[in-house]
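Title: Prediction job returns without error message
Component: structure pipeline
Severity: low
Priority: P3
Assignee: unassigned

Description:
Job completed but the reporter wants confirmation the result is attached to the right record. Sequence as submitted:
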Amino acid sequence: MNQLAKLVSAVAVSALSIALAGTGPARADKCPDPDNITYVQGRDHCLAIQTYWAGGTPETLAVYFHGDVPSGRPVDFVFGIGRAVALRGANAVILIRPGFRGAGRRSSGTATHDQYAFASRGIDEIESMGEAVARLKAHHRAKRLVLMGSSGGALIAGVLLGMRPDLVDAVLLISCPCDVPQLLFEKGFRSSEFTQSPHKWLEKANPKAKIVAVSGSADHTTPPHHVEKYIAAAKARGHDAQFLIVPGAGHGGRPFGPIVGFALNDLFRR
């Protein structure tokens, strides 16, 4: 290896080390006035939220985690799922992940696209969001909690299913990277010790928790065979688990609408 190559390699390793060292938050950001309607306090983040009310006193709360949104645009485009849940008789909260914007508000922290790949799926950040979810469940006096997520948000929901079995009663996982190490291996990348994965946490989930997963048959980002294996493992543990395929669909988009609607009807029966 020549000197220039050695220098480039050293710089790359140094940059990677810095990125990995930053997987945990440098400080805890506190909300000045968290009302649990527009902002909620996480363990290490002040998280913006968008709340949808079903009316009356519903016993179920749904919390939705959006995907990684590489463009960094506001996440208002996912708010429709909150309205859809409220129409089905449950209160819904769209949790705006650290560093992202939505509804004219911003969560503290660093967004996925500004971090080393999968660093934002580390245990510290997910634990912080788990603490926020616990506060929301208490605020809504919910007897039942459903976590929902798409892509990177599905990863978070799937991890919290096992990380907080005391809280979570059901999950809806859309385009889920349910086995991250295998997914990275198939794409030619190395897995990080910091990266969490739903399949690693499944054995700690409450076996009574319901699991619904939805994937596109042509999804090359998070191929459905990983999700199929995850659902099979969940069924083996005694979970009420089902896997719904959207024929011909990729990683998301309009084709998912009818089948996601079917899944919502199943999860939020009045």
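Comment from assignee: result matches the submitted record. The longest strand covers residues 46-52.
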